[in-house]
Specification:
Radius of gyration: 10 Å
Number of helices: 2
Oligomer: single chain
Strand order of the largest sheet: 1-4
Number of domains: 1
Length: 55
């Protein structure tokens, strides 16, 4: 699986970055997932307040 983030809807709140257990997400203007590090746990999907992250 691959985590997808709708960059147009991302509000860069940082909640997904904080929730990621393997530090695969960085947030600047928008959240970005490092696909090599991501373990597809889905924590970021569940925590996103604007529902722009999907597996």
């Amino acid at each position: 699986m691959v985590v997808k983030i709708d960059e147009d809807g991302c509000i860069a709140c940082g909640q997904c970055e904080e929730e990621c257990p393997v530090d695969a997400i960085t947030v600047e203007d928008v959240a970005v997932v490092n696909e090599d590090t991501c373990i597809d746990c889905g924590n970021c999907v569940d925590i996103c307040p604007v529902d722009v992250i999907s597996l």
